[in-house]
Amino acid sequence: MKSSQRLNHPSDKLVAEIAWLYYIKGLTQGDVAKQKSLSRPTVISYLKLARDRGIVNIKLAPEHLRLNDLTDSLKERFTLENVHVVPDIEGSARDQTIAVGEVAAHLLPDFLEPGDQLGVSWGETISHVADTTPHWPIKDLTVRQLIGSMANPLMITAESCTTEIARRMSAFCVNMNAPAVCSNIELANALREEPIINEQLASLKQCNKAIFSLSPCVPDTHVVHFKVATKPEIRTYQKQGAVCILVGRFLDAEGNIVSGELDDRLFSVKLSDLKKMTGFLVVSGRHKSQATLAALRGGYVQHLVLNTSLAEDILKSS
Description:
alpha/beta, 7-stranded parallel sheet, 4-stranded antiparallel sheet, 15 helices, globular
């Protein structure tokens, strides 16, 4: 092979050797370059290739992600198994969402065990988790979609989040062949009688773990943007005391289920079943403090990743 071909299209074997010397043997990039007769920029490029090709999978050590006081207080207050508080960052709300999502993504392999069945929700936060989950195969893992398909295929969907997490973890993926919501109850009931859809809804009970985010129950919620609910429907739930939307369903400030007409047209995991799963909540933004408190009080969360200011607000309000 010509030298230029070797540099531009290195084999997995060569890339793995570079990664071994740098990550395992502890050589500096300069030492690796000298030993393999390469330039230092080429070594840097090969280390990036090692990650891109899945030869190297990097997980962040959980102990470096914790802000101890907030973490311990949240764990004790809500009897949680694990809490990771991500420092607030300068920038937009989206930047903070991305930062929280990336931390959750690197913690996801530690959340899972061989043979688990993971339910996956949807939305911007979960999409960032899916897009940054390490390529980390989990043996006999099944990933299931917790809510049906959205109206706009160009936007973030439940199926895309589910599929990407399954792909990155070499898991068996089960998408839901139904819309998130039907226009009328008669149609929804008819679809539930279809054997495939009936089986998929019933199989959600097999999930022992779930990863999700949430939304405040307000008219400009993403649930309205994705056409799962209308603004008048949201206001109706608000009048009944709803403050939190979780997988398309509603909770009041104490974490109690708020039921309404929309629930009968919705294709989503029932909250009674979600509560039986080990819940991994990923959330950011101070405007979500009341909704997050509702999910915590309702007992839906055992693992939590959130940003500092949101953590502080929750502790002040609880």
